[in-house]
TrEMBL record:
Protein name: TonB-dependent receptor plug domain-containing protein
One Pfam family hit: Plug
SUPFAM superfamilies membership: Porins
Organism of this sequence: Flagellimonas algicola
Residues of the TonB-dependent receptor plug domain: 626-712
InterPro entries: Plug_dom (IPR012910), Plug_dom_sf (IPR037066)
């Protein structure tokens, strides 16, 4: 129900959004399929703790599911899929999350043997697949370290909009395109055109040039303002052809301008402070008479106006009070209701709903940080779902860290093609920011027509896991077998059983299942008599049939070469405080895979001692004091990753997840994983079956590690074999009419580990290598609209950034930042 206040505002809009001389509201104006469809679309956004990781670390994320038009959270409890994709466009890991009230939190453990390079995190729902992969959320992350990747191309998984950039990396000159405002140039009027210039490297490049007619006469000059984008205007004449001429790297290049219409209609949009003016010009015989202008936002109409009069010119006004932050779509229709002009304009109020600040600017190592979050408006009217991350700012390079929930929901997810540095349009203090944002709307937001095509909805919304398939004859798989199919499943926390009777096509379907974590699945079928399927006497096993299970197919990963990093952008990750040798004692290829010399294999496995020696080459020590083979524990796992050390290595005591040296709590070892320093918690996260062996190095022989190795070193080495993490687990036939396999189920998010250093007896000698200091997926405010979040700094002296992201119940994205330093 519309409240009286909102109804008054709508009525005011109907009056103000009108031709100067006449206004008429019409509810039966052209009903665009694209608009109706937009209200039913979905968007997924992932708030991640950072953008740069090492192999073996954990990615923490919060998924937000919203309606595409309004950005309001969807309370449909749908399934969200999160994929980790490598640079070869292969999906390595998939997580399934069950949303609740429009969100879900999760994590993803990066396998320790993952090679360094650029990767992509992708998130989507099954329903989003109906509109293609371009609607999926994508974010580039980097796994590894160093600064040698600054010139690499970054994979995003989708080809940019063809009108903007199509295979520009192979051009010898800039790709310069012109976009008439509203859709077309019209002879005899002052026309405005947006333009964008893209350099051969795929990045926007600023240019200067001029427009000339057929005789070579200069009509007007133009210059780009930001990333190759700008705007120019001129009056085209009948019978003339126009060219754009620019100078680039000492060469002259020319480009044809779009042809102008002899008779047509055009539309310009201007920001006039408290309102927007839409200027309409038409050289038709009827002028502007009978034209209809509609303003909409997020698939909802703001107002519609019908213009009457025989003039060639009209001005329509839209008050800004009727508009919220985001893209406003102005569409002009002719008398028959067909769209003839369209223009996107971005409304940005710069309003701030939530603020954050720390108790002070600088902190010491392992010092408590108090971060206060406060609503900047009436707390009684504020309701939002929010998440908080605190990580080192160096871990968010400009090319990877400039996507937040506000820029994504309001801008990048609404336009085609990749947008260079979208955060600039929201956060920059450049006085030309708003003007440049409009140039973005005139270029990458340009439309010459409206696409009415509605794709078939082949993928339904998923509120639970679905297992379906067919029972068919073994010698003729296109022939169905009526059967009763039984499903049994079991995992560490739950078990269940269900029965389904196939239809005439032999099809069965178990829906709305909710598995937690990896679950063992057993499917069994009993053939039924065709004469009396329900008669128990006629039920029994038939050796001539088997079960075909339909598995979930991952959406295609589209290949593209994305925009490269600019040379001035530094893309790096802070190194651990240990100097590692630059020259590795083994050969490493471009994919960072270790290439070993040819070896003789006996009994299908390498010599154990030779294999250990090979793996230790990644570390700095030469010989361990003690070594423990984990083969016996892989067959019969015992406790956590280091429990086996208790009583087997002298001087090392393990109590739960605490390791002590010589029974003294303040003497804790330094940890290595496959030769590289890691935090203690990373070691305990490793499953026992993945460990090959563990070395212990006494303090007396650890001088090469400096003070970090003062209390000894524990070095853990994992098994080789990348295929163990990436191979597909497919159903296995156990006999006639039976299948068994492991289903991944919904991912259970682990609790983020945060140490407490003011606790009596805390182990001060343990090295703290945390790069994410705090991860809180659900931030709860008090009734007064405040909350204080506390956490400790690590041993890294660095600048840290606290990032709060979320969305209100009415669909307003929230993004706030706070910066502090740790010495």
């Amino acid at each position: 129900m519309v409240t009286p206040i909102r109804f008054l505002l709508l009525a005011l809009g109907m009056v103000c959004f009108s031709h100067i001389g006449y206004s008429s509201f019409n509810n039966n104006v052209y009903n665009s399929d694209a608009i109706v469809q937009n209200t039913d679309r979905e968007k997924v956004y992932l708030h991640m703790d950072r953008s740069d990781y090492y192999a073996g670390e954990r990615i923490w994320f919060k998924a937000y599911l919203v309606q595409a038009g309004t950005n309001k959270p969807l309370a449909t409890n749908e399934i969200i899929y999160v994929d980790l994709i490598n640079s070869k466009n292969k999906v390595l890991i998939t997580r399934m999350l069950q949303t609740e009230l429009g969100s879900a939190s999760g994590d993803l453990k990066i396998p320790v043997e993952t090679t360094k390079g650029m990767y992509t995190i992708r998130a989507y729902t099954n329903f989003m697949r109906n509109l293609g992969n371009s609607t999926f959320f994508r974010k580039n992350i980097r796994i590894g370290g160093g600064s040698q990747l600054t010139s690499e191309k970054v994979f995003t998984g989708e080809k940019p909009m063809a009108e903007i950039k199509d295979a520009v990396l192979h051009l010898e000159k800039p790709d310069l395109r012109f976009f008439p405002e509203g859709g077309n140039l019209v002879n005899g009027f002052i026309n405005r055109m947006g333009f964008k210039s893209v350099a051969p490297d795929g990045l926007g490049t600023n240019i200067r040039g001029k427009v000339v007619d057929g005789s070579g006469k200069t009509i007007t000059e133009f210059a780009s303002s930001h990333l190759g984008m700008g705007m120019t205007s001129f009056i085209p004449q009948n019978g003339e052809k126009y060219l754009a001429e620019i100078q680039y790297n000492g060469n002259t290049f020319t480009y044809p301008l779009p042809n102008a219409l002899v008779s047509g209609t055009m539309m310009h949009v201007f920001d006039r402070g408290a309102h927007y003016n839409v200027e309409i010009k038409s050289s038709r015989s009827k002028g502007v008479n009978g034209l209809q202008l509609r303003a909409s936002q997020g698939g909802e109409k703001i107002s519609t106006s019908k213009i009457e009069g025989k003039d060639q010119y009209a001005v329509v006004t839209l008050p800004k009070e009727l508009v919220k932050d985001g893209i406003v779509q102005f569409t002009l229709f002719d008398g028959s209701g067909q769209p003839i002009c369209e223009r996107l304009f971005f409304h940005h109020s710069d309003s701030k709903q939530v603020g954050m600040e720390t108790s002070k600017w600088q902190y010491g190592k392992r010092e408590l940080v108090d971060l206060e979050i406060k609503v900047d408006e009436d707390a009684a009217d504020f309701a939002a779902n929010m998440s908080l991350s605190v990580s080192e700012t160096a871990l968010s390079a400009p090319r990877m860290g400039n996507i937040d929930i506000k820029t994504y929901l309001l801008l990048t997810s609404e336009l085609k093609g990749e947008i260079e540095n979208p955060a600039y349009y929201f956060n920059s203090k450049d006085p030309a920011r708003r003007k440049n944002l409009d140039f973005l709307m005139m270029t990458q937001g340009w439309r010459s027509f409206i696409d009415h095509e509605v794709e078939e909805l082949r993928f339904p919304r998923e509120n639970g896991i679905t297992l379906k398939g067919r029972v068919v004859q073994s010698n003729s798989r296109d022939k169905a077998v009526p059967a009763q199919v039984s499903l049994a499943y079991k995992n560490r926390m739950e078990a269940g059983y269900d029965v389904f009777e196939t239809n005439e096509k032999g099809e069965f379907e178990f829906t709305n299942l909710h598995f937690k974590d990896s679950t063992s699945i057993f499917v069994y079928a009993n053939a039924l008599s065709k004469k009396n399927k329900r008669s128990k006497k006629n039920r029994g096993s038939d050796p001539s049939f088997f079960i075909e299970l339909e598995s979930f197919s991952t959406p295609e990963v589209k290949v593209m070469e994305s925009l490269p990093l600019r040379s001035k952008e530094v893309d790096y990750v802070s190194a651990f405080p240990v100097m590692l040798p630059e020259i590795k004692p083994f050969n490493v290829d471009e994919a960072d895979l270790i290439r070993l010399k040819e070896a003789v294999v006996t009994d299908n496995k390498l010599d154990k001692d030779a294999n250990m020696k090979r793996k230790r080459k990644a570390a700095l020590y030469t010989r361990p004091s003690y070594s423990l083979d984990y083969e016996q524990f892989r067959k019969n796992p015992i406790g956590n990753a280091l429990t086996a050390l208790q009583g087997r290595i002298p001087g090392v005591n393990v109590v739960g997840e605490q390791v002590y040296i010589r029974n003294q709590y303040d003497k804790v070892p330094f940890y290595l994983l496959n030769g590289f320093p890691v935090a203690e918690q990373t070691i305990f996260d490793i499953p026992v079956p993945e460990i090959d062996f563990v070395d212990y190095i006494r303090p007396a022989t650890t001088a090469i590690y400096g003070t970090n190795g003062a209390y000894g070193i524990i070095a853990v080495y994992t098994l080789d074999g990348r295929e163990r993490f990436y191979k597909e687990q497919t159903p296995m036939e156990n006999g006639v009419g039976t299948l068994s396999y492991v289903h991944p189920g919904f991912a259970n998010s682990k609790k983020f580990y945060e140490p407490v250093y003011n606790k009596k007896g805390s182990k001060r000698g343990k090295a703290d290598f945390r790069r994410t200091l705090c991860w809180e997926p659900y931030v709860q405010l008090s009734p007064e609209g405040k909350v204080k979040v506390s956490f400790y700094t690590s041993d890294f002296p660095a600048t840290y950034q606290a990032t709060l992201q979320g969305v209100t119940d009415d669909g307003t994205p929230i993004h706030a930042k706070a910066i502090f330093e740790s010495e």
